[in-house]
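pasting for ref
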Amino acid sequence: MSLTLPTTPPKRLSLFKLAGPTIVGNLLLSIVHLAAIKIVAALGSDAVAAVIAADRIYMAVQLIIFSITAGTTAMVAYAWGANNPDEADRVVKLSAIVTLAASVVLCAVMPWLARPLVGIFGLQGEMLDQSAHYLTLLIFFNIFFSFLAVISAALRAAGDAMTPVWVAAIGNVVNILLAYALVYGVGFVPALGIQGAAYAAGLSYALVAVLFYLLWRKQRLLLKPMPQPFLERARFRKLMRIAVPAGIEQFIFNVSIIAFMWVVSLYGTEAFTAYGIGVNILSISIVIGMGFAIATATMTGQNLGAGQPDEAEHAAWRNLKISFATMAVIGLVLGANARIIGSFFINDPLVLDYLVALTVMVAVVQPMMSIEFTLGGALRGAGDTRSPARIMATGFLFGRVILTAVFYFLELSVYWIYAALIADYIIKSSMYLVIFRRGNWKTAYSGA
């Protein structure tokens, strides 16, 4: 039976209605991470380093979940644009099952891998043990995180960016309150040190996942669960064809981050701690780019599903102009106030000097990052996850690996290592512009 496509894009395809709530949600999440670092900072720089190392590895293994949700976003957006909510529901259920299975596997293997993984960053003794335990705790709660990641991605792809924000905001508040109580102990609650921060994050994931599940099952969300089969080989293959390249991209990205952090760690705990704090501070601007990426992915996927590829392209270029200007301004503000912001989190003079230098350098590349986020979102929303993977690999190889190796073996200071980030983003932003202009992404979904 043929499917009649809508002749006009849905009215909900508004950049600010999609990007605004997503940006707010990501900012809240960044504030939670910063609050956790601030809370743990009173325990000393070693405690901060242990948390930063565990969080970095945790985000790296999350590539499995995020690669699957990349497929969820593209497939749900396409189905919604084609006015096919039944298919969107089937994609959500399939994605939830696949991410759940992946989370169970991670729970089984991580107790054996946590210690060597966090040990990459040169942690030793008690700090190594604490970091490994922290990572293991987070992984055990990943079963809850996997569901909330799927349902949040699916809702945004369908055009509802607000619900994930207010539901997650509840979890964020709980996270911060629990973190303080569990790290230092309050009343009958014992002080658990940095492990308290891990429990706080995990329990907040559980709360949000349960809340999402109840809303979904009671049909209170835009996406309604329906009694229908969803385990179909063709659907699973399409999900994997989109997810696997996205997973490769995420793998390359996380390997590049970990490798970069490893090189930085060779310059001492101060340089490593500064990098970890700096990334969290700059995530405030980065999440704005992510908001534009998610909004552009939704608009691209829905317009392609509605049979309007030209509108998909025009929307991407419009979004890029706005995101470029926005991230340029925010990067300028962060760079100009780097020392004031950094001194709020750390008092060590050497760490602060490193942090200021890193903040200024990354602030410079914010406009180029807007190109990566926005056009990358457009490609992924179209189902083209191969191009972002190739772009990521190229930037990683030539921008980070080769340059950082040269700088390190020339015995240049860590400031030069930080500066290699600029070359990485010059390469990636240039490639995104070239590939997007070619337009091959407009037919990527049908070939997935």
